[in-house]
Amino acid sequence: MTIYLYVKTHRKTGLKYLGKTTQDPYLYFGSGIYWTDHLKKHGYDVDTEILLECDNNDEIKRWGLHYSELWNVVESNDWANLKPEEGDGNSSEQAKKMWKDPEYQKLQSIQFSKTMTEYWKNPETKTKQSLKLKQLWKDADYREKMSNVTRELWQDSKFREYMCELWNDPEFIAMISQKLSGENNPRYDHTLYHFIHDDGKEEFCTKFELGKKYPELIQDKIYAIVRGNRKWHKGWRVKSVS
Fold first, then answer.
1. Residue 68 shares a structural domain with residue 15
2. Angle at the Cα of 150 from the Cα atoms of 5 and 27, rounded to 5 degrees
3. Do 50 and 104 lie in a common domain?
């Protein structure tokens, strides 16, 4: 298991936070009391720098204390840390308390969506993260852990109620639709395909653009053609891939 020692810097305010995590450091928000309060007020708009990757918590603790003292993270107003980073986390109970606040949950959901959209636009990041996820999901213990976390969340009536309210919020739905539709979708396929129709028409475009140009086509069936699960759809087929 990889442990990351990282520094997060808020782009709007300049406040920094030194922390450690076994999760993806670019997606993990951090759990310090002052830091999470700061995110609640200003949003999750941060840069993340990885200082160290290792599989030894003692090493993380040693370097965490080193950087804590080097940058004086507790006393300095430039840092959100309320105590030195010793590799044992920062107030998990406080973090849980924060996530019980519906306003905080909604804010983090929106910020997470925005972060994911920007995160997946980077081809190198996308490739690296995909490989990490594939390796993680090969681990039976990881799959069981994630299954248990999901199950526990949905057993919480407040969480279920919150999710229902969130997905019935027109503003949230509009934001998600705008951010994750078409070319804004972090999983958007930019591959150019050579589509040919039985009547001789030809198109050199992405599968999404083909569906957008010909509204009578069904996107799922276009995707099935590209994947090789169908030979054609309403006269269209794939001749080649660029």
1. yes
2. 30
3. no
